[in-house]
Every structure is written in structure tokens, then in C-alpha cells.
Amino acid sequence: MEIAVTDAVRPRTAERLLNRLAAEQADSRLPSVAAGLVRDGTLVWSAARGSVDGSAPTADTQYRMGSITKTFVAVCVMRLRDEGRLALTDRIADHLPGTPLGGATIAQLLSHAAGLQAETDGPWWERTAGGDWDSLAVQLGDGATRHRPGSRFHYSNVGFGVLGELIARMRRTSWDDAVRTEILDPLGMRRTTTRPVAPAARGYAVHPWADVLLPEPEHDAGAMAPAGQLWSTVADLSRWAAFLAGDTADVLSADTLAEMTQPQMVDDPPEAAWQAGYGLGIQLWNLDGTRYAGHGGSMPGFLAVIRVDLSTRDGVIVMTNNTSSLGRDLAPDLLAILAAEEPVLPDEWRPSPVPGTTLEIVGPWYWGPAPLLVKALPDGWLEIGGLTGPTRSAKFRPNADGTWTGLSGYYAGETLRVVRTDDGTVRHLDLASFCFTRTPYDPAADVPGGVDAAGWSA
């Protein structure tokens, strides 16, 4: 069975996308699979294969999203930070007394850098009913820390159980009520719930050597629920993809979202070069130079992924009711088909006003003998890059006092100052103590260490 729910893409694009989805369902033996693509904040294509309760699934069919839940928990934590209720550098034990965790900070828990154990000490929590916070807290003694906090990436489901309790304590409500009130309701995500609400797919394991199914258990995970409890739909997660692409509405500031998508730790497997990392509650990928943000999810009977191309802002959602076997290439393949068939057009160029004080400093400069180029950007910012080769490139945001603040790379957070002579003429630029001059090592500028009086010679 199949159903194409939207047709905002061209027929050839839709055909290629459906063929790729159909091949995945057949080759990976998925009881059902639903997928969608998001562009400019809109679900432009969705389709499904297989059967849920004898009918074709749709973009409104619920699947368990697994660890995609963690992105919602992380946003709630960042909202608390933005309100001044906590700092990312706070030790979690400062807010949850009696929970040592080796001095791990909130930021380390969000980025899986706390060194905390991956799973609970008891039975496999994903297949057994969960207990309350007290039953989880007793496991969080000194032995719960497997690695020195901050030393390496070590994925921890337990860590997000801890963050869920942090939200509950600070909001005086359950973590899921906080998620609903602060995120789901404002974004209109009505079909995202903590337990399945029909129509919803049943979770299955597929026998590895025969085409038969085994139902997987479903339950409330209790204190571990923040690690993977939520259920959702392709339609609802399309709104979350738009959120991750920058349309945060009033839920979160753009600057905070950008902070969450900055790599905090690299997932460095010994068998291959690293291609993935983790921000603050958000999974990151760097594939062939293209950066993606989102998260994968797995629970017994379900697999899911949401991924956004940070350059084009296109997003993809895939959800299936199978414990294993969903190919890793499906989500990137769907994005690649959309990009190939319907590439994003560049914005039209239009002239934009540039202040005279900015025009004064655009053009070639020199860091010692190295040529640089300062360009004015349409948003009122500056960009510094190499004129003849690679260098420490960065964008800069203007400040009210006439200085500029670096936003990326080596110069992130550093201050760019325009140094003038007594008559107001620009003498040189000062960036983090580096002197940029209009000619190589201009002797008229205040070059640190001075310029040899003999000047340039053969």
C-alpha cells in the first residue's frame, strides 16, 4: 500500500522520492514507513509504504520517535538558561542535591560529555516499565561515572533522565507537561504525545531469517521517559524540522538555537574517521562538507530520524515501526533527490544601504604580508576573508559603540576596532591585538613590534 500525502513538488521529483521510499520498505522489510520533506518551513512532500492496522499510514500516523525526544528536553533546559534560572556551567548536583555524578555540568549532560553510564543498572529500560526518580537516583553514585566529565563523547540515555528531573524540579511539573506547555502547544504539534493515540503504528521486530513479525512491548518509561518516550507524526515533526531550520517562533531565540547546533563533542569511532558530533541536545553530522542538525531515534519496534541541512534549511523525517534494519542512507538520499531535482534558488541580489563608516573599511587589508579582504554584507555585518588564499575567515556584527564582534571561527567573540588618526582618518584595524594595515606592514600604522626602518628590500 502507498499514499502520497502532498504534491508540492514536481511529478518527476515525487516519483523518484516514492521509488526510493518503496525500495527501502521492500529491501529492509519494514512493516510500514512514512517520510516527509520540509522546505521553507512547509511539508512539501510526504509518502508512506506498508500497512498500519490494515490501512496505509499517512503523515498523521503516530510512530514512536525515540531519542528525538531528547531535542525537546534540551530546548526546555535552554529556555531555563535563557530565563536565568540556571547556567550551563552549573554542576547538576547543585540543582539535584544528593546526585554526585562526578561534578558533571548541565552542558556536559546535554552534549553527552558527562561520562555518565549509557544505560540503567536494571533490566533493559526500553522494554520494561520504568520506575520513579528515586529508583533511578539510587543508581547515580560515584560508579555511574564511566569517564572523566568533559574528556570524551559517551552517549548516555541516563543523562537525559537526569535532565528530565531537572526540568520537573525547576518547573514544578512533569517534564512532559513542560514540553507540551512550552513547545508543543505553541508550535501546534497536537499529535505529539507521551503515549500512542490512534492512528498509531504497533511496534514490531522482524525475524532476521523469515518474513514474520514479533510485537514489541510498549510502556511508560517512568524516570527514563525523557530519553525516548514521545510519539509523533511526519506532519508534526515537519514543524520541528522547520524549528531546527530556524523558525523558532517565540519558543526560543535564534541565537540560542545557533548555540545548540555548535559542536560540543565529536563522536570519534576508532574504526573510521569521525563524521558526527553533538551540540547541546542536538545531533550533528558533517558529510562531505555539508552540515546537518537533528537526531536519530530508536526504541524496540521503532526507528526514526529528523535531519536538517543547515545550508539550505531543507529537512527530512523518516519513521518506521521496525526494531532494526532501516537503512542509514534513506534520509540523506531523500534530501539529495529533492536538492538535485529542485535546487534552492539563490536570493535575488538587490542593492542595500551601507553606512559611510563601513564603506571606509571595506576592500583589501594586510595582516603583515598576508592579503585580506573586508566585505560589507547585506545584513549590515562585515566579512573578513583571504584575498589570495585561505585564512582565518569570519563574519562580524556591528555594535553601537562602533566596534564589531566576531561571530565565527577563530575570531568568534573577539572585538574588531577601527583605529583612527587625530583627524578621523582610518589608520588601521585592530582585531584581537592583530594589526591590519592598508599596505603590508605599513610603517605609519601602530604595528606591534614596529617596522624595520630600512623597509622592504631585495
TrEMBL record:
Domain DUF7586 positions: 355-438
TM helices/strands, residue ranges: none
Lineage top rank: taxon: Bacteria
Keywords per UniProt: Hydrolase
Domain Beta-lactamase-related: 22-336
Keyword Hydrolase carried by entry: yes
Gene Ontology molecular-function annotations: hydrolase activity
Keyword Transmembrane part of the UniProt annotation: no
PANTHER family: D-ALANYL-D-ALANINE CARBOXYPEPTIDASE, D-ALANYL-D-ALANINE-CARBOXYPEPTIDASE/ENDOPEPTIDASE AMPH
Name of this protein: Serine hydrolase
Species for this entry: Phytoactinopolyspora mesophila
